[in-house]
Amino acid sequence: MATLEGFRVRNFGVLKDVTLGRLWDRRREEALTPMTAVIGKNGVGKSALFDAFGFLADALKFNNVEEACDARGRGGFDKMRTQGATDPIEFDVYYREHGNARPITYQVAIAVDEYGRPYVLQERFRQRRKGQKRGQPFSFLMLYNGSGVAWKGEQLGDQIDEDPEHLNLFDLLESIKAKESAETEAIELSDPRKLGIATLGALKQHPRISAFRRFIEGWYLSYFTPDAARSLPLAGSQEHLNIHGDNLGNVVQFMEREHKQRFHAILKKIANKIPGIDKIDIKETEDNRLLLRFNEKGFKDPFYAQQMSDGTLKVFAYLLLLEDPTPPPFICIEEPENGLYHKLLETLADEFREHATGHKGGSQVFITTHQPYFVNALEPKEVWILEKGKDGFSQIRRASEDPLVNDLVEEGLPLGGLWYSDYLDPR
User: Fold this and answer.
1) Of 158, 187, 231, 234, which has the most beta carbons under 10 Å away?
2) Is 4 helix (H, G, I), strand (E, B) or coil?
3) Are 151 and 170 a contacting pair, CB within 8 Å?
């Protein structure tokens, strides 16, 4: 399964320039772990970081960066861009298709035209050649203002000076276009607001771009709300839980029909992990919908999902998500602790890690949190500390960068407790 090894965002709200994990030009950085958590005080940029992933996913979903700028209450490009900045909003995504594959970097910059409308200024795909450890990666897609080239092979890439100190992307494209080759394909997008990866990723001639598009399309960003999960959707099965959770009943129906034996084992497993719940089962209605029933300890009659607490529904939805037979490659959840009993948080963190690090090809999990009880279950290398710098913009560091923190955790002190006691604050 594809994995995200590094992520950089620039000029996105308080995230003027923030990098997590490894990028191709920062080889000394360690890659992101299967389970990653970002912690920090209120207002340091955790929600902005979550939304940076969400914006990329929306831009691909809508295939229109202007629509993505207006979606989910973002308020348009001007409100998204860092205050006082004039440069584009930029994202770098560094990932591998599988464990032994060569890493790929996707870079995209979004600017505004003379009418104030956002558009894709440039896109670039780069990949290390086989056996390459140093030097410039090979670019196999380069677009500037919706115009550029894609490579069908790698021969031409060896002949091009890709050092950004010598050529900007526009001049580099012009030099490449001047050299006709069977290895290149001219690209001209009809709308500068569209992403090249959305268009080219639909073509079998570009398998690496297609794989990356599927990777981003597969991201699951949770905007789960318990009230949505309590709704009674129309009958019909759906394979995956959606971002709001309002198709919970449809997923239950799919699991019951397609994975009946496994599903009932899952219900039993989940019931054992939710405090106060003795049993979870289902009841079919006359119109062929399936309703979840929760038997609480001490009560004879069951409660339906519409009567259950926010916390119980949230835990059930998260655990059901982790049991998806074909899980998403990347799960991103903002503050999963909201509405949950604090002693349940370490269990939930353990469940996320077990899923992410398991041998069955689970999802990579990314969490933002401000709950020390959740952090208690994590290791220093899994935790990133987001804080405000003296300039008012966000900066980030890994907890494992502090030798004292590593030593204290080795001695048995929980990481969340160290955070609560200010040991993770900058010295």
Assistant:
1) 187
2) strand
3) no
